[in-house]
Specification:
77% helix; mainly alpha; 11 helices
């Protein structure tokens, strides 16, 4: 699979592929958007190591890759948010069958309203966390101004982390395949940690005695 991705990094179509994968993985979390971003960043680092001529001829450009990933992430979040906000009986039934989405409804309404939108940033790294948060925020009828800034911050954090892993991992380790492999391990480790934080029960604040 990595060999196929490596061949795609030599074509400008890599930007479209990265954008499409990130846009859709809010609805289909199985899409390998993180793998695509890391592999593309690793290819950019390898081109840089090969010299100025290779950098000029090689795609993707690291800054363009970062902007593409951030933009696609925010657009995908808002698409899911808008879909959930409009509601509908079918969506209501789907959420009711999902313990994750039900729990998200309960936690996000208060969290976002009180400025606890850091949950949006953390969940961006967790498997399916982006879907849960975006749909949950829309379903609980949170305002755009409460959700959008956290979505942008989450996109910058996730895209920046993924691009940095692929780029600097390859630069430091010297070989594309090793840098990509180590970077993917680091990405999955961050996802496991984020999943633990998101799923951890919140401790209710004690009510002062009258």
């Amino acid at each position: 699979m990595l060999e196929t991705l490596d061949s795609l990094t030599s074509s400008p179509w890599i930007y479209a592929l990265v954008a499409l994968s990130i846009l859709l993985d809010v609805f289909l979390p199985v899409l390998p958007s993180g793998i695509l971003v890391i592999t593309a960043a690793a290819a950019a680092a390898a081109a840089g190591a090969a010299g100025p001529v290779a950098v000029h001829a090689q795609v993707p450009d690291i800054l363009a890759l970062l902007v593409t990933a951030v933009t696609a992430s925010v657009l995908g979040d808002m698409a899911a948010y808008r879909l959930a906000r409009r509601g509908g009986a079918r969506l209501d039934r789907a959420i009711a069958r999902s313990r994750r989405l039900t729990r998200a409804q309960e936690r996000l309404g208060t969290a976002l309203a009180r400025g606890g939108g850091a949950l949006v940033v953390v969940a961006r790294f967790a498997p399916a966390g982006r879907s849960v948060v975006s749909l949950g925020a829309g379903k609980t009828q949170r305002k755009v101004k409460e959700f959008l800034p956290w979505s942008v911050l989450a996109a910058i954090a996730w895209a920046g982390y993924s691009v940095a892993l692929g780029y600097f991992g390859t630069q430091w380790l010297g070989t594309t395949w090793l840098g990509t492999a180590v970077s993917l391990i680091a990405l999955f480790a961050a996802g496991a940690l984020a999943a633990y934080v998101v799923r951890r029960p919140t401790t209710p604040t004690p009510t002062p005695a009258a």
